[in-house]
Amino acid sequence: MTIARAARLFRSSKITCEQLCHHSYNLAYFAENSLHLNSYAKLVPLEQILQQASQSDERIRNGNSKGLLDGIPVTIKANIAVGRYWEMPNACSAILSSGNELEDTYSTDEGECSLNNQVYESDIARRLLTDCGAVLIGITNMDEFGMGSLGINNGLQRDVQHKRPSPTYNPVPWMQRLASLLESKQYLRIKDCENDDYWVGKLVNSTPGNPHGIHDENCLADLLEEVQNSIRGEENCHRTDEFPLLSPGGSSSGAAVATSHGSSLLSIGTDTGGSLRLPSAWTSTVGFKPSYGTYSRYGVVSYVSSLDTIGFITATTECAEIAWRCLGAKSKAARADGTSGRWNVQLSRDSTARVYHKDSNLCDHNCHIHRPLDQHTLFVGETMVTAEKPLADIRVGIPSAFSLEEIPPIIASAWSESARSLQNNGGATLVTISESELASPWIRLALSSYYVLACAEASSNLSRYDGLRFGVNVNPDSLYSDHDANNGPLCDMTALERQISANRAHGFGGETQRRVLAGTSVLSSDRFHTHYEAAAVARANISRSLENLFRSSLTNDVDDEKVDVMLVPTALTFPPKLNQNGDDMQQTDPTAAFANDVMTIPISLGGFPSVSVPVNADKLNIENGLPNNIDLRNMIGMQIFASRGSDDLVLRVANELQ
């Protein structure tokens, strides 16, 4: 199901918003309780979901639809405030999980008042749910404060058996298994998925215990038994090796899983160093990070303020383009009172939000490479109609600096095939960017520079959570014995210092503590110049080096030596297994995990727009090259990025690639 198909079915009255959202709830319920994917921090109660959907149905019947997102089931990451549906964004951290719950009403001198209009709501949630009419299905899990790339650092949910944070699992192996079951029983033919009647029947027959329509009870029972055996890590289960539990990537792990499994058609998340693009590559979805500052960050829990960017994950590039247009279009209220500008100009409460785009529906910027998108791609009845050579005016850069020696052959082959696809099918001109123009040491240096800067900003941003101003407040006596209090470093602390230490030790998980301590270290007087300032200089040089390779998005720059976009892999690794009795997760080197973002971080440092597109394994002439029955070719993502403000161009090229 795509956003365009759902909107068309709504308008034709073949399905209702309530039916689609009920089906999405069933999928989410099945994913959490049967497949144990652990993608949701909170599922919105069904009655609230149906209430939102019924309002969308009424608007559509009356011809007052708020756009293509009206009635579409969506999810939002746990570090984003969504008002009455999630009173306090906890960023999956224990330090924000206690003592902050709000009641439905509060008392005043005038009596009881509803909190519905008083709770904390982010600008992006207000835009998505109120202005665009989307239906919130739930809040998705994440690595604590966005610190992680594997989806294993949840600071709230615990796996009691293995005494560790409960991970979020990749749905792709189980989706492949489901497809195999359905095809073997002739319940599903891929060509049927293009038929609207197939989806109508699927929604009508959806149940919480079997939303995928597996009619053979024995097949369904076998599948669920395989899931349970994998989760328990039973050594005598041969299915454990065939269908392992894999990491979905992070930190927006739950957002990617919800979209990949189908319970959400649009998942809002945040991307700091690759938190949307890495999980989208590993879950065969589309992850879009706009130019830094495009969307207001008001209502988002801060991690690295100079890099945090709101973006989203969708199933297809067409869905991503629709979301981009709807979230960026001028609101009806703005048009009614004669005002102009994008939504973040009118509604933003984030003073750091910047506007790179003159108009969300056109992308000319007075530049030949930014023609109005409708000259290349037309929506006819929500069906994509593409010009014969839609990228004939586009130069695609292939930077040698990103061709690191660690790149696996299968990903290198996918990179080459993707580039040839843009050239042969889209008509793009391929341009090799040599080491003399962009050196690979800069790409390697970006990784270390990023983590120095990220840890430093995290140390500063998270200093507010001391339990006295913000966060939980625990009793130090419950954590420290009398011996601890009178010996070692604790004996030199004042009562206030011991209190703050206890609050932060109890509230922050291991990865968060590690990064806060690292950030405090690089900000110290003896390391500030050698570490922090050096990283800041490296960031500026990396950003400038990349920016100089692009044609300008704001002038009529026609330099034939420069490129419009660049194409690189999203990740150099495949998702690791998480199901070996928990051993893999316990032995994961936290610093080695940093390298998962080596291909996404240079782009984040420059604030460039970027989109990760899943490789179509069926159309690539490459072998799986990997053992077992998991087709890891479906867990490869290709990343397209361009200069700041060229978001429409990035989506246009991404659509042709997919």
From TrEMBL:
Highest taxon of the lineage: Eukaryota
Entry coiled-coil feature ranges: none
Lineage of producing organism: Eukaryota, Sar, Stramenopiles, Ochrophyta, Bacillariophyta
Pfam families linked to this entry: Amidase (PF01425)
Source species of the chain: Discostella pseudostelligera
Family note: Belongs to the amidase family.
Protein name, UniProt field: Amidase domain-containing protein
Cross-referenced InterPro entries: Amidase, Amidase_CS, Amidase_dom, AS_sf
Domain called Amidase: residue spans: 38-171, 247-330, 375-651
